């Protein structure tokens, strides 16, 4: 069997600017099962992936990039990483290659996630912490299997299902205070009553409140399983009796009784219940809406199908909601988090009609990070979108609804793209998309850089 390390690629074998990809399928305990998973259905669209669905298996993710933990391949088996390494200036552009420190890989990692159970309560380290974690693992085990890259991992998620639910970032201080005042079970799991009282008395937007929040959150994650189990059962009893007042006005407005029942069904007696529901922003988005998750930002997606894109990394620290043991480190988790209690609206993504859109059919979704932005093209049958000059950098597209024809801007080299199929488009390739079915939606991740010289990134 040919290994990734030994694979030799000869560029003359693949002249097309449109390179279809076989995605990497990631079974995950939080994924939707079988054909209920959009990720699994999309993977099936490319027969060359050699993927067969097990209706009892949860499928959480597909990866459409060149990270070693989940490599995409061309249809004839070339790892995407080897393609890019063979000629980084051709597949990234000289400007992108220089801008991102002469790294011979995409600056971003593009995914589809499909889940009906909460993902682990998690955060992604910044570059400094990622480097330390890599060194620590190498020192202790002699190799890197968990932390395999030194990069940060800010990310965005955009809803492609009708709705998305999740928890992102710490709630505004005033909201946390309101729960501390009306939810007795929350007070019980926080035994340091002096810190709680100081937090309640602190100014909502002050530095003192953030410091006390960290102390309380650390204490919560260290609460014994016995105490969490008892308080979880008491909370569930109140909720099942229909006692909405036990959650206060905010809990009633956000429908948190239903959320609590779901979380406890997914993860009985888990500290993540109190951490997520009462300390974190509960986010509910509709199709096409998205949210940013900066490095060191606590989050846990709950239910939905999303397009996800992030800086090129697979680094994660988790604690709660089935966190994998090799990534479960409460001390590092508490210390790394940003204790910035802000409404989730501050993290919602903005979009506008893309300046390169020839027919006004494509929106650009701005990511608050350097490594990428997103594109969303919507077409009806027979409608066309033309990007005559192409993109000055790499782009990966996936068709999330309907079928489309992709061609060069002049109509040459047509190929049919069916729902779920993925294509890498080489930089500076003018292209045209034409709707084949009644409704077509295509998402893309891309990065551009202009000019000859960029400082290497720290």
UniProtKB/TrEMBL annotation:
CDD domains: cupin_PMI_type_I_N (cd07011)
InterPro entries: Man6P_Isoase-1, Mannose-6-P_Isomerase, PMI_typeI_cat, PMI_typeI_hel, RmlC-like_jellyroll, RmlC_Cupin_sf
BP GO annotations: carbohydrate metabolic process; GDP-mannose biosynthetic process
Functional pathway: Nucleotide-sugar biosynthesis; GDP-alpha-D-mannose biosynthesis; alpha-D-mannose 1-phosphate from D-fructose 6-phosphate: step 1/2
Binding residue positions for Zn(2+): 122, 124, 155, 299
Domain Phosphomannose isomerase type I catalytic: 20-172
The protein's name in its UniProt record: Mannose-6-phosphate isomerase
Organism in which the protein naturally occurs: Sphaerosporella brunnea
